[in-house]
Amino acid sequence: MEIKRMFSLLVSLVIILEGCNTTNSQQDDFNIWIDDSTSTQETKESAIERLNNANIDYKVDDEGNILIKESDIDKAVICCS
Fold it and tell me: Which residues lie closer than 8 Å to 47 by C-beta, 6 or more apart?
């Protein structure tokens, strides 16, 4: 009976700790924020300036798209829309 309690406690603890885990590799994936094919150079420059002002990490890919981290999407919507 004591072994069942310990096992249940251990399983519960693992589930709770896994639920509290805030590091998520998907949050560091970059998504397209500004698509080069549908934006002017002025729009892209303005977006880059606003992202810099909001301290949001971004990168520009080989095709000219502006990419931001998935975890920063809400912040970018607030500051750059």
Answer: 33, 34, 39, 66, 80
